[in-house]
Write a structure and sequence with these properties.
The protein is an alpha/beta fold. The protein is built from 17 helices and 38 strands.
Amino acid sequence: MTTKTILTMLAAMTVTTLSAQDAKQIADSLTVPATLQPGDTLPIPAVDGAKIEFLGADYEQIITPEGKVRRVVSDTPVKVNFRVTKNGKEAFSKDYDVVVKSKKAAVNEVNAKPQVIPSLLQWVGGKGEFRIGDKVTLFCNASPELTNLIVTDLKTICNCEVVYEKDPRKAQISFIAFKPGKKQSVESIKAEREAYRMMVREKGINIIAGADTGLMWASRSLLQILKQTGGSVPCGVAYDFPRYQVRGVLFDIARTPYTLSDLRKAIDTMAWYKMNDLHLVINNNYIFLEEYVKDGHDPLKEAYTAFRLESKMVGKNGVPLTAQDLFFTKKEFRELIDYAKLRGVNIVPEFDTPGHALSFTKVRPDLIYQGKMGNPGRRSDHIDAGNPETLKFVSEVLDEYLLPDAETGKATLDGCVVHVGADEFYGDSEAYRKYSDGLLKYVKSRGFTPRIWGSLTHKPGKTPVESEGVEMNLWSSQWQDPVEAMNAGYKLINTNDGHLYIVPFAGYYWPTLNNPFQYNNWRPNYVGNTHIPAGHPNLIGATFAIWNDMCDLRHSGYGMYDIWDIFRTSADVLSQRMWSTEKNPDTFEQHRALAGKIGEAPGLNPLNVRAGDAPVQVTPTALPMQLNEKAAGPNYHLTADVELTAAPEGTEQVLLSGPEGKLIAVMKDGTVGFRRNDTMEFSFGGKLPLGKKVKLELIGKPQHTQLLVDGAEIGTLTLMNYKDRENGWKNRTKGLRSTFVLPLQTVGESFNGKVYSLKVEFSAPQK
């Protein structure tokens, strides 16, 4: 009996059993073949009185939007969905599992699939292995920048010499990018830009991709294998590409400052796991503004807010839009975008209005929303969505980054998706809808794809809001019904707060996503409990978010060091769930062990671990003295014999310094302290004596740094950046997280006195 005959019989059976059911019952009771062969066309079931259409597959690279089944190199599971219309009512089907079979049967006693994160989608094992020796020849037709990156990483992982070869046929490892076909859909081209094939023989490795991005992802898989094996790769063929085109991470860089160095390390880690969408919240402010109002303080003048980009915007009141503690110049941010793009990562900057807009209202207090609102204590961070001047003002700010620069001819945000925010506005719904519509259309008019937080269900009204070509984060089903958004035509990104929000040290949401639930149970196409068809063309991916709600009156002094493991161990879990349908390895515990073997991206030491290094020990004969040593993260123990000879009032004196921060012998208030490169500043609460030789001991541990002078603490550790509301608006002293990465570049940058000796010992950080 032929396959065609079987499918015809199945369709006939479907007609007789489903014709009496409604659209949804039919949609979830279809008979769909369990397996298909390359070259087949997915059969569309037929039911009397109902119209059934193929909606799509989660891997449209395997089953195209037209239902054509493409070649696979190994059996591959695909989820498909259908749209059913009956009696004027429409329903989407459940996810149907179909396995696309390889025409080549699996052979026993061949190499098993190499384990990487995320796992290879398709693999056919061969026999033997390719081993890298002391020297390897390489061909690569990627950009010079990507070629150099791949070469550098190969050298780092394999400790070998890499020699360029002009002829790919003579190279031991070749990376070759080709152009996608002209007749493909935009979505298919995007998908194939990330696809690659890796063929490993005993004589060498041949990698082919649709674009540089695919070559980048192939290099990450190759390097992960090499890192585990010490220089060998099992023979076989891998064909690999992602399930969803957006695989994202959100960093709230507005409410807690992140350095450019922090962000570059995060980008390297994202690329290591093939995550490709970095959502950066450019402006935001302390959420709980009502705490200021209740205590008789003015949040407009006192509450923490930040706009992290250089801007020429200054209010008539003299208040600048740009944050004063840490910001990025336009040139720096453009360089960061280019750094990320080279590594396959797209940066999505978010400019949040009309809520969370304290940075904007401080500049234009005349535009503060004055209407009715659910939480009037937060009025000061609501800009008036109903005032035409608001859209004009915000558009003027955006133009600094969306219009081409006079010198370079290129916009700061050229090539970026631009997020317009628009979450948690508690004012008038109709005004909100009109403002959001205007902002989305404005961003599109400048040639950019806009993205927005889903809020239209919570903000009902008559005003339609632009949806064509608009991406939407689905963060709360109460604020935005996922099915409504899907039907309206928005491109959907699952960012559900119940499953994907992390708020460090807050006591609500997830403290980390490093747990079995996300690995075993989370699915990108379930927004909370709402099912979105896995193959729906409007579902483009998912993003997990790290929100820094605990700023200002609730800030404990934490920095990127303290949340690095939260980020990394969430990225490796969710990259697997966004790239592939399967769990590989089978269990969360096995996945965690695999992540440990793979380790950090090449050359990356994000926590500045120096365990095992010999102590740094010097006897300076003159100051300043250049150490030029690598910085040390916890755990370390510094001992120094010093004598302070002068301490002019209000003059800062630096004992140790480097890109990571400064250990300050005399702060402007005269006390000993330190300042991190993220601008967080701590005082140990006491002063060094004048004209007396003392022994300093700085003991650095994760989340706690201790200073001893002649064996005793000299005061109370205090966070200087923020006030403590519970203790009379004084500087913070309780519950601090005072991690300090010790800078070891220069001794005595500006120290009035003598350093008789200095020694730093290292050990592994305790978790």
